[in-house]
């Protein structure tokens, strides 16, 4: 007896309808939150620039934010790492308080001069707001994973104005060497719609110009390989130093609010007495300059020092825009050494240091093409992939898992933050086995 089987595409329609609606709802929430956040950041930055003395209040601001997180935010203090953990191992809905806490904490950081970014805030707001739909619609664990990924994509896309990069970032950031394609439709829809929502709210994104991209040839490609290796090592250094300082301060300063207080004293004093205000906040004007004219060759190192001090001591914000600053200014310094156009290498550094530090070479390549034009794609991909490889098994997100190791063996599923202890234990066991023989 012949039985009629419906075409698979018919069953796909309700699935698509469900995720188009859910992802659009996530995008509306995340895009609106990001728009408010970006407008608040503009106000905070303009206020700080108009009243330079505000930087001396940075230690008190850090103490206040640290106290608020100690009192009300212990459940959400892990930030982006909490989102990644919940996607891999769903346990409980992320408290809504994550959104206002990280929003307020980041605006305060920028108002008083901490060197932090904005991606972490947008991603955390997007994830926390998206997860509230889990409770509202009683979503299953598997659906909850996808909606959290959509929230990450929506937050990233709307804060940078890069919907394709945002969509892939939500898929790529979870695990090194592995993408989850079951979430590709929700992430794509959430990223595109969230970006449009932000634009409708009047958000304007900075334009960076790479006027000339040379034809693909042997030397430019070799230059991208060399620069990519430098960018990857720089991303690794940034991640390692930030984690090391954070761990060192936690070991020596038990009372959490004191950490940003002391970090604030260091950052404010250095900026005031060294005249180093260009390394505070997002640093967008300096990034734009990196595409236009030669800058001091130490700008990237100075920005790294200020950002490591700010994030490592506990100030709230993101890592990505400081990584853009570090990469663009490092590319600016490398351009004459590699005989490459200055705007081109500034743009490549902009995305490639981020690719290495976040282990997201595909999202970073798409970001380059969205920001600088599709013709930069071959060079951006080359540098981002090399940067990704040279950054090793480290990164700014300690809850990122190993899907497939880059080169040296690493156990599948282990967190980046747990890998050093694992390798130390393996080395101890190997040494014991050699001693026995």
TrEMBL record:
Highest taxon in the source lineage? Bacteria
Q: How does it sit in the membrane?
A: Multi-pass membrane protein
Please give the InterPro entries that the UniProt record associates with this protein.
Cl-channel_core (IPR014743), ClC (IPR001807), ClC-type_chloride_channel (IPR050368)
Q: Gene name, please?
A: eriC
**Record Pfam families:** Voltage_CLC
Q: What protein name applies here?
A: Chloride/fluoride channel protein
Supply the alphabetized keyword list. Membrane, Transmembrane, Transmembrane helix
Output the Gene3D superfamilies linked to this UniProt entry: Clc chloride channel
Q: Where in the cell is it found?
A: Membrane
**Membrane spanning residue stretches:** 20-41, 53-70, 146-171, 216-235, 256-275, 340-359, 371-390
Question: What is the species listed in this Swiss-Prot or TrEMBL entry?
Answer: Vogesella fluminis
């Amino acid at each position: 007896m012949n039985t009629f089987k419906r075409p698979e595409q018919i069953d796909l329609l309700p699935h698509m309808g469900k995720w188009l609606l859910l992802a659009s709802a996530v995008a509306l929430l995340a895009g609106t939150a990001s728009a408010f956040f970006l407008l608040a950041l503009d106000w905070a930055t303009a206020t700080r620039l108009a009243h330079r003395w505000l930087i001396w209040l940075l230690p008190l601001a850090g103490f206040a934010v640290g106290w608020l997180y100690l009192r009300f935010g212990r459940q959400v203090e892990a930030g982006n790492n909490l989102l990644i953990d919940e996607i891999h191992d769903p346990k409980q809905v992320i408290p809504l308080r994550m959104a206002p806490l990280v929003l307020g904490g980041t605006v305060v950081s920028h108002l008083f001069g901490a060197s932090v970014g904005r991606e972490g805030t947008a991603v955390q707001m997007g994830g926390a707001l998206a997860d509230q739909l889990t409770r509202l619609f009683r979503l299953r664990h598997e659906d909850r994973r996808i909606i959290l990924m959509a929230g990450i994509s929506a937050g990233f896309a709307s804060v940078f104005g890069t919907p394709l990069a945002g969509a892939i970032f939500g898929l790529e950031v979870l695990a090194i060497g592995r993408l989850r394609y079951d979430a590709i439709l929700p992430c794509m829809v959430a990223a595109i719609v969230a970006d449009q929502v932000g634009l409708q709210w009047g958000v304007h994104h900075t334009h960076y110009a790479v006027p000339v991209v040379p034809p693909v040839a042997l030397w430019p490609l070799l230059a991208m390989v060399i620069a990519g290796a430098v960018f990857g090592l720089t991303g690794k250094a940034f991640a390692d130093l930030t984690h090391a300082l954070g761990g060192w301060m936690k070991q020596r300063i038990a009372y959490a609010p004191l950490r940003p207080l002391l970090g604030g004293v260091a950052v404010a004093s250095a900026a005031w007495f060294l005249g180093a205000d260009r390394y505070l906040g997002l640093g967008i004007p300096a990034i734009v300059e990196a595409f236009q004219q030669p800058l001091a060759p130490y700008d990237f190192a100075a920005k790294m020092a200020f950002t490591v001090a700010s994030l490592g001591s506990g100030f709230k914000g993101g890592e990505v825009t400081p990584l853009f600053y570090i990469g663009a200014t490092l590319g600016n310094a490398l351009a004459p050494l590699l005989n490459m156009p200055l705007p081109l290498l500034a743009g490549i550094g902009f995305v490639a240091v981020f690719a290495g530090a976040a282990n997201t070479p595909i999202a970073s390549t798409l970001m380059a093409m969205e920001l600088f034009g599709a013709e930069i794609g071959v060079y951006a991909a080359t540098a981002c992939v090399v940067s990704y490889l040279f950054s090793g098994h480290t990164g700014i997100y300690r809850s990122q898992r190993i899907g497939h190791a880059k080169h040296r063996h690493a156990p599948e599923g282990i967190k980046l933050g747990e890998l050093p202890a694992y390798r130390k234990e393996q080395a101890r066991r190997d040494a014991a086995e050699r001693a026995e023989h």
